[in-house]
Design a protein that fits this description.
The protein has a domain of 74 residues: Alpha-Beta Plaits (2-Layer Sandwich). It is built from four helices and two strands, in the order αββααα. A two-stranded antiparallel sheet has the order 1-2. The longest helix is centred in the first third of the chain and has 18 residues.
Length: 110
């Protein structure tokens, strides 16, 4: 269940699941992400690792493309975005944010 204890102003009238709270986060966030040059590239179910710790399971994976680090920082510091980030916090037990940089030539040597 989503834990809105730290965000009572965002809390729904009835208890909701973490999945529902995360969808509220996505719905709130996506316009700000798109306005700053980002978008969702992948959103889907997770599961147990083929290679990795067998006691870990990721229920959801979201891959966001952003035009640049600067545009991500502009997005992440937008006060209107920040006003709804409590949905994310209420939804998640754990998370990771891993910035990636694409090698356009598919060559790690440049």
């Amino acid at each position: 269940m989503a834990d809105y204890a730290d965000f009572p102003d965002l809390a729904p009238q009835r208890a909701i699941s973490g999945r529902e709270a995360y969808q509220r986060y996505i719905d709130h966030t996506l316009p700000f992400s798109q306005d700053s040059g980002g978008d969702i590239e992948f959103l889907g179910e997770g599961g147990k690792f083929f290679v990795g710790p067998q006691d870990e399971r990721w229920y959801l994976l979201m891959l966001i493309r952003q035009d640049s680090l600067q545009s991500f920082i502009a997005f992440a510091t937008n006060e209107a975005y920040i006003a709804g980030v409590g949905h994310r916090t209420a939804a998640l037990e754990d998370s990771r944010l891993l910035p990636l940089e694409r090698y356009p030539s598919h060559n790690i040597n440049g």
